[in-house]
Amino acid sequence: MDEIFPFQRARRPEQQLLRRKAILDAAQELLAERPAQDISLREIARRLGGSKSGIVRYYETREAVFLELLQRARQEWLDELEDRLPPPSHPDVVSQVADVWATSLAERPMLCELWSVLAAVLERNVSPAVIREFKLGNRQQLLRLAEMIASRVPGLDSEAAIELVNTSVVVIVGLWPFANPGPAVREAIDDPRLTSSHVDFAQTFSRDVRVLITGLLTIRN
User: Fold this and answer.
1) What is the DSSP letter of 12?
2) Could you read off the pLDDT of 142-164 as tens digits, one per residue?
3) CATH 1.10.3210.10 holds for 63-219
C-alpha cells in the first residue's frame, strides 16, 4: 500500500496524476516556509502524512520534485502573462511589456526562487533522463515566451526575442537573491549607509528588460 494516498496502487493514469499533484502541492506549501535547498523528501512526505518511500515511487529526488514544480509554476505564469501583455499598438509598448513582465514575475516569488537556484541546486542529484525531460519542457516554455514578446514588440524578430528571453533568465538568477536576501543581510542593510544595497526586483528587472529590448532593436535595425 502507498502510505500517502487513500487508494492502494495507482494503476490508472488519473490516479498517478493525482498523486504527483499532491506531492507538488505539498512541496509548494513548504517553499512558502523555507528555501528549496532546506527541504527534504522526508519533509514533503511528512506534510502528506506518509514516508519518503511513497514519494520515491514518483520522484527520484527532491530536486526532481522541484524541477517539475518549476515547470508547473512557469506554465501558470505564462498563461497569465499572455493575457496581461499589451498589444503591439500600445504607444509605449517596450516600457509596458517590460513593466508587465517584471510585475507578473514579482507576484510569483516561488517561481522566481526556484528559477534562481536552477543551475546551482535543482539540476544536481537528478538523472540524465530527468534533466533531459526538464530541459525539453524548459525549451518549449521559453520559446513560447519569446513568441509572446516578439508578437508584441514591433521590429523584434524571433531570433532577437529568443536572445532576449534567454538573457532575461540570467537576470532573474542574478537579481532575485539580491532583491530577497536572508534575515541577517536584511538587518545589515538597514544601516543608512547601505541604502544602495536595497534592490527592488520589479523595478530593476523592468529597467534591464527595457535596456535589452532597446539594444536588440538598435543592433538589428
Assistant:
1) S
2) 999 999 999 999 999 999 999 99
3) no
